[in-house]
Design goal:
mainly beta, 2 helices, seven-stranded mixed β-sheet, about 50% strand, globular, about 10% helix, nine-stranded mixed β-sheet, single chain
């Protein structure tokens, strides 16, 4: 049973308006999620903020997000606070996200980091369908827990899958499975001495592997970069704070919009 009378659903569809800017064509959401009206950055990017009026995800909470970025649209979707996953007891919380990016559209999905509390269990699944001319920045930042309370890797499980298709062809599949009870996440082959992790995927011809590697070195991060396709790149990095990883993601966004 969730904290609300119905399953949490959010739908967003955009289009280019008569003024040439991206606008919201259609939207629907149920508590605790809602969307703010867009404000515009340089290059007419519609910045839309996702807001949750709850304290975080609880036992049994289930969210379904359906996002459709229309042709020629430029959208950045962010969140207003860190995502907190509370103690789910013997259950779990879940989120299923489906994203469609139409021809010549650009989408930057940049939510704030996820914090899994002690004894929390989260299951997430994201599926993205793109046109070959689409552009994408998709990033997920995961914290080891409430670091200030010395609650490091005390969650039960954190599972997150990401599937990306370009012209219906599978390009990328990532399956993050973190289970501290079954695997020592502090060993040198996992997080080692670090507590924060970013999994970032970029599809934009203006961003190169060399640029991202240089950015990692410049910021002193522990990370690596891999090519996915002619324009697709995956970046993974570790840090001891969320600020550096948020700044990394923002620098990539600014590089694309210049």
């Amino acid at each position: 049973m969730t904290s609300y009378a119905q399953e949490t659903i959010l739908k967003l569809k955009t289009k280019v308006g008569q003024n040439g800017k991206t606008i919201i064509e259609d939207t629907f959401f149920t508590p605790p999620l809602k969307l703010m009206s867009p404000f515009y950055e340089e290059d007419d990017i519609a910045n839309i903020m996702l807001i949750s009026v709850s304290a975080g995800l609880m036992k049994g909470d289930s969210q379904k997000l359906d996002i459709h970025i229309g042709e020629d649209c430029k959208v950045k979707l962010s969140s207003q606070s860190f995502e907190k996953i509370h103690n789910t007891e013997e259950g779990y919380a879940s989120r299923d996200t489906k994203i469609i990016i139409d021809k010549n559209a650009a989408f930057d999905f940049s939510p704030l980091p996820i914090i899994p509390f002690a004894n929390s269990n989260f299951k997430g699944n994201t599926e993205i369908h793109m046109h070959s001319s689409s552009k994408l920045i998709y990033g997920e930042i995961i914290c080891a827990g409430r670091i200030s309370r010395d609650e490091i890797f005390n969650f039960k499980a954190f599972n997150s899958t990401l599937k990306i298709y370009v012209e219906k062809q599978a390009i990328f599949f990532d399956n993050t499975i973190l289970q501290p009870e079954k695997l020592n996440l502090k060993n040198m082959c996992m997080f080692d001495k670090f507590t924060h992790y970013i999994n970032l995927v970029v599809f934009d011809s203006s961003i190169s592997v060399e640029y991202l590697r240089g950015l990692i070195n410049e910021m002193g991060l522990n990370g690596g970069v891999s090519e996915l396709s002619s324009t697709g790149i995956c970046l993974k990095a570790l840090s001891n704070g969320s600020e550096e990883l948020i700044k990394l993601r923002e620098k990539i966004h600014l590089q694309i919009t210049q």
